[in-house]
Amino acid sequence: MSDIERLFERNKVWAERIKEINPDYFSNLSTQQHPEFLWIGCSDSRVPANQIVDLPPGEVFVHRNIANVVVPSDLNCLSVIQYAVDVLGVKHIIVCGHYGCGGVAAAMEDKDHGLIDNWLHHIRDVHRLHADELDAISDEQEMLDRLCELNVMEQTSNVCNTTIVKNAWRRGAKLSVHGIVYSLKNGILKDLTVTDGTKT
Ligand code: CO
Question: Is 101 among the residues known to form the active site?
Answer without folding.
Answer: yes
